Amino acid sequence: MQFNIDGHSAYAYTGGKAFDPALPTVVFVHGAQHDHSVWILQSRYLAHHGFGVLAVDLPGHGRSAGTPLPTIDAMADWVLRVGQAAGAEHLAIVGHSMGSLIALDAAGQAPDRVSAIALCGCAYPMKVAEVLLKAARDNEPAAFDMINQWSFSGLNHRPGNPGPGFSVFNESRRLMERQKPGVLLNDFSACDAYAGGESRAAQARCPVLFLLGDADLMTPPKAARLLQQALPGHRTVRLAGGGHNLMAEQPQGVLQALLDLLRPLQGQTTG
After folding, report:
1. Using omega within 30 degrees of 0 as the cis cutoff, is the peptide bond preceding 125 cis?
2. 145: which of 41, 112, 243, 269 lies 20 to 30 Å off by Cα?
């Protein structure tokens, strides 16, 4: 599905079904150097089970045109405007890593429009290691290697082939290679600089799910504590043995946690 946002084409995957804004809308937001395809399994299931799905490519990522946005709050505003362009009055926003900060910020920016948020692989502050920032600036292939080494638990996918013909490492590496040069540094810089978490948490008025992997080296569960304290009504699901790329490593566990969060919305009139 294509939209025009600020004069640029914006893409959202709708899960293989035509988007219906009368259904509860779920917006999936990817992390740094990724695109909508990281959510392909969860987004497709929800689209075929009573939800309207918009799995977005952020500006300058994947199939969305334009320049990557430099700040988390600008990305959150863009996500809200995509939902508005699609005709969805209320949005549940599911975000991974950088996307989790975007989901939080959107919930604070528009508490009357955001009906739930799921923060997957979340940390706050989301400070990026200097070695990664330097590699993103000077040697992107080296950065891709480090990210992939740290994004999978090692407990489930060594040497990275959970089934014949499938490698979570190679899949993730190829996805990162498809993005434009400079996107990774932009995304990491936005995460590293984001300081609005506490204020946005105070403004949010919706159910909040933290979905964390026990073996996550990129955003370990303890790195979410500050936000968890700022969101006292939250629910946390920790997936045993899960690394940072939970959606690929433990797709069923991620889906079940999301269903527990989102199913109550099907009994509400969300527009």
Report:
1. yes
2. 41
Residue type, 125: P
Using CA atoms, how far apart are residues 43 and 6, in angstroms rounded to an integer?
26
Integer Cα distance of 80 and 25 in angstroms = 12
User: 8 or 249, which is more confident?
Assistant: 8
Q: Is the separation of the CB atoms in 178 and 267 below 8 Å?
A: no
CATH 1.10.940.10, domain 2-267, yes or no: no
The SS3 call for residue 216 is coil
DSSP H helices, the chain, are: 40-47, 72-85, 98-109, 130-138, 140-151, 168-177, 183-193, 197-203, 225-230, 246-249, 251-262
Distance of CA 29 to the CA centre of its chain: 4
Provide the angle, in degrees to the nearest 10, between the axes of the packed helices 183-193 and 72-85: 110
DSSP-assigned letter for residue 97: T
Distances (CA, A) of 217 to 70, 93, 159, 199, 239: 25, 24, 17, 26, 14
The residue ranges of every structural domain in the chain are 2-267
| Residue 156 confidence class, pLDDT cut points 50, 70, 90 | very low
In terms of C-beta density within 10 A (0-12 exposed, 13-18 middle, 19 or more buried), how is residue 268 classed? Answer: exposed
Do residues 212 and 65 make contact, with C-beta atoms less than 8 angstroms apart? no
pTM above 0.85, yes or no: yes
65's tokens: 């045109």
pLDDT in tens, 168-225: 777 888 899 999 999 999 999 999 999 999 999 999 999 999 999 999 999 999 999 9
